């Protein structure tokens, strides 16, 4: 840059900066008040007045010609930067407020808006949760079965069977076979109830229950009247009738180029081996039997279901005359294979020494998990449903059922169950069921776990 100025001693009227091919006209430098009575300092006479910074000129008449090439900013020496830092002054309150407005932190108004949005979203979530709970309550309340007469024994058995999803699904998938057989009225009636489980039409459900009761009565006339019956006997009759249809339906399926697998056989039937040993000569004889359930004796003093099952499998004395002439033998039972669903009947009703039928109200500690041994390896089971008889005597009482929520699953941590008291359905938990049904549990349904690595044999 070259600076052109007039001769010494004369006041310059203009200063021209030459930067490359660009010329900038600058206004006269402001007069500087001299300390010596207004005289011009000698340095200004020799070297001229200093230029002011172009960026600070406030003359509106000034015209600035810009070039397409950017200007190079002169770098400050290090001593200047350090001195600037040392001499930095705190900003004024107005500048501080402007800096706060320009930074990324939210202002008070923005914070209020964010809080309002969060509260609105939380309210929407709560409203949605309340709506879902209301819909769910309305939904599971429809699962009840009406009881116009004394059919609570039948309703409780039906609710426990409907809890077995895999069992019901197998029946549903083979409809093309059993729907062609006029003798399969009991299967048709059961599936009609299953498909109308969520119906709110009470009259329709009554008609379906009447049809199911009639179908069972065709095979077993004992259940034709309207008197109270034993739930265990009714459940056994239903399973036996469905099982008897298996061979007939297999023949029908082969005639139409299909197959049929009895769900009772596939889910509930298992084999037991009874071994009899003479106490004198040691001779043994074995016999195999098929079961759809086991009947267990109660163990006094708060016995567990696991203890009752182990007591069933231990060896007991048997009066039997052997070929050697001995009259005492030992008999023990063992599982040959294990079912997918293990049904256990607790012997609460029994005959007294005077041949009077009485009820045993001793408490039973209900085991949520059950370990069952067999000759093919052990299995782990989980409790999924109970049938309970509430009442102190044989002639009076009421049947209700508890079952795990099918939508949750037996291994879900929420542990959500339902209590089916005819048409009234309430939500509960498995832990509550085990605590409240100690004196009333009558039939227990256990399903085998798919994952058994955590079982302790």
Structure description:
There is one protein chain. The protein is of the alpha+beta class and 457 residues long. Among the domains are: 1-65, no CATH class; 131-264, Alpha-Beta Complex (Cathepsin B, Chain A), CATH 3.90.70.10. 35% of the residues lie in helices and 21% in strands. The protein is built from 13 helices and 16 strands. The chain has helices spanning 42-47, 78-86, 93-102, 108-141, 152-163, 165-173, 175-178, 185-195, 202-219, 231-255, 263-267, 305-313, 430-436, and strands at residues 15-19, 22-26, 270-278, 284-291, 294-296, 316-319, 328-335, 341-346, 349-351, 357-359, 369-372, 379-390, 398-404, 416-421, 424-429, 441-448. The strands form 4 sheets. Strands 5, 8, 11, 12, 13, 14, 15 and 16 form an 8-stranded mixed sheet that branches. It is globular and about 135 Å long. The N and C termini lie far apart (98 Å).
**Highest CATH level, the class of one domain:** Alpha Beta
- Bin the helical content: 25-40%
| Terminus-to-terminus distance | 98 Å
Classify the secondary structure makeup into a structural class: alpha+beta
Secondary-structure map:
Elements: E1 15-19, E2 22-26, H1 42-47, H2 78-86, H3 93-102, H4 108-141, H5 152-163, H6 165-173, H7 175-178, H8 185-195, H9 202-219, H10 231-255, H11 263-267, E3 270-278, E4 284-291, E5 294-296, H12 305-313, E6 316-319, E7 328-335, E8 341-346, E9 349-351, E10 357-359, E11 369-372, E12 379-390, E13 398-404, E14 416-421, E15 424-429, H13 430-436, E16 441-448
Keyword list:
457 residues, alpha+beta, Cathepsin B, Chain A, eight-stranded mixed β-sheet, four-stranded antiparallel β-sheet, 21% strand, disordered N terminus
